[in-house]
Design brief:
This protein folds into three domains: 22-158, no CATH class; 163-289, Rossmann fold (3-Layer(aba) Sandwich); 297-491, no CATH class. It has 496 residues and is an alpha/beta fold. Helices cover 45% and strands 14% of the residues. The strands form six sheets. The protein has a five-stranded mixed beta sheet, with helices on both faces. It has a two-stranded antiparallel ribbon with strand order 2-3. A two-stranded antiparallel sheet has the order 6-7.
């Protein structure tokens, strides 16, 4: 995820402790109230207009109350449900799927309540009214939330605003790791502006490869002074042996006086929010990490989604498939489809199907063009201006149309709609035990690697994204990745 904003505040493993929030977050939460009001009023207003043409039609059983009053009551309850579900909490707004999930739960609770009240009191609320208000409301609320996120991301990238400035307390390696993780996503909320390094050795700066230099302000005893010097909004405590539980508690008391957040990075990497649960035990905030789930109901849901989605794409896209097949056949010699052995679930090989985009026999020319390989890491083979690609193939690759036949692989259970990138056998032979975990789930037509840069990614980033997906996959993440894939295809970023 790139996945993904995807990603990525959750992926940094910053576990917030109770504290105040930065001013921009409070302002952003207030603006969400206005957008929620707009979305809800639009939903109930459109439902009443379409269903009743604006007329005040009385409900059976409540002759003195018209649908205008019903719309007002539903709107008030809807706004209340979003508030009760903390959909505008500063801790979840602006990143991750949790915000959308809470909007969904709040909306369903309102319409579920309407259905129960209607049944108990025999009100017979018009089903057409509810069938319009519910989907329009969900679509409008989520769209407005998405638009609000995009505004914030643009403000961060172009103007450096809506940023939470973070001072990191911990060892130099931990500071580098945290800074690198936060810098992977250009639209990330957090920006490391300084560090305090516990220990006898003093240094004035820390060099972070690929990011720059982070100024250092002494050890943990100078945190308050460093916060003032860097104008930080938060302090993140990472791995350190010199700052124990009591020291963190004392630090939180000092920061509370300054209206500064305290964040704790437990050092658990690439674990998404749904797998983390805070459990207070004997006064200790223990983080329970749930095991990855690859079986049971979740696997059944994923397979059902794969079958329905793939069947719909193949059926609706049949004219496109036929047109592409004719274009490939009439413009170059060779078969219409290109079949290549890839490694799937649990290391079992399968034949992956694609429209042929290269000259016939291109796979035998790899050694001839090995010197032109642009992939970082040396495992993948990618050339931006590959001379083996046909003119029609360039168009197909630009918009990922060549991958449409892979939905046949999905129906054959070789692949999934969303999953890790399907590797070649020679790639798998170079895997260590860490990378081999990619094979615990079926490879996908799309995935975090597809929506986070595709061929522009280095080998290390590709592996990191694939493993993050394997460890944290869920139906919500699959749906979000599928939606983001459409945007990646239209923008054709990293496609060559």
């Amino acid at each position: 995820m790139t996945a993904a904003n995807d990603c990525f505040a959750v992926a940094t493993n910053l576990v917030p402790m109770p504290a105040k929030v930065p001013p921009w977050q409070r302002g952003y939460a207030r603006r969400l109230i206005a957008t929620d009001v707009i979305g809800i009023v639009l939903a109930v207003g459109l439902a009443q207009l379409v269903r009743f043409g604006g007329a005040n039609e009385s409900m059976t059983g409540l002759r003195q109350i018209d649908y205008t009053m019903v719309s007002i009551v539903i709107a008030v309850c809807w706004m209340s449900a979003l508030t009760i579900n903390h959909s505008r909490s500063p801790r979840i707004i602006g990143s991750g799927a949790e915000e959308y999930r809470r909007v969904w739960l709040g909306t369903l609770s309102v319409f579920g309540g309407v259905a129960i009240v209607s049944m108990l009191f025999k009100l017979e609320v018009a089903r057409g009214y509810l069938m319009i208000a519910l989907p329009v409301g969900i679509l409008t609320l989520v769209s407005l939330r998405w638009a609000s996120r995009r505004v914030v991301v643009q403000m961060r990238r172009k103007h450096g605003r809506c940023i939470t400035r973070v001072l990191v307390v911990g060892s130099a390696p931990a500071v580098r790791d945290l800074t690198t993780s936060l810098a992977r996503e250009p639209g990330s909320e957090y920006e490391v502006v300084g560090a305090c390094i516990p220990g006898p050795l003093s240094r004035t700066k820390i060099d972070v490869p690929g990011v720059g230099t982070i100024p250092s302000f002494g050890d943990e005893s100078n945190v308050v002074g460093a916060v003032t010097a860097t104008n930080s909004h938060a302090v993140a405590v990472t791995a350190t042996e010199r700052l124990d539980g009591r020291g963190i508690r004392d630090l939180s008391w000092e920061l509370e006086k300054l209206d500064i957040d305290l964040l704790v990075a437990p050092g658990v990497v690439d674990i998404a929010g749904p797998r983390l649960e805070m459990r207070p035990v004997a006064g200790l905030p223990l983080i329970h990490v749930e095991k990855p789930q690859y079986h049971g109901a979740k696997r059944f849901q994923k397979r059902l989604f794969d079958v329905v989605f793939s069947s719909a794409v193949l059926l609706c896209g049949l004219p496109v498939l036929v047109a592409v097949a004719l274009a490939v056949k009439l413009t170059s010699r060779g078969p219409i489809f290109y079949r290549q052995e890839r490694i799937g679930l649990d290391g079992h090989p399968f034949s992956m199907i694609k429209f042929r985009t290269m000259v016939d026999g291109a796979d035998k020319m790899v050694d001839q063009f090995a010197a032109l390989n642009e992939s970082k890491g040396g495992v993948l083979f990618k050339i931006r201006q590959d001379p083996r690609v046909t003119p029609v193939g360039r168009i197909l690759r630009k918009y990922s149309i060549d991958e449409l036949p892979q939905f046949i692989n999905v129906l054959k259970r070789d692949m999934s709609v969303v999953g890790p990138r399907p590797p070649l056998a020679k790639e798998v032979r170079s895997y260590d035990d860490y990378v081999r975990r990619r094979l615990l789930v079926r490879p996908g037509i799309t995935g975090l690697w597809q929506v986070s840069g595709r061929s522009d990614l280095s080998w290390e980033d590709s592996v990191r994204l694939d493993l993050f997906y394997v460890e944290n996959w869920s139906m919500i993440s699959d749906l979000l990745i599928a939606v983001k894939t459409v945007r990646a295809m239209i923008g054709h970023t990293g496609a060559y």
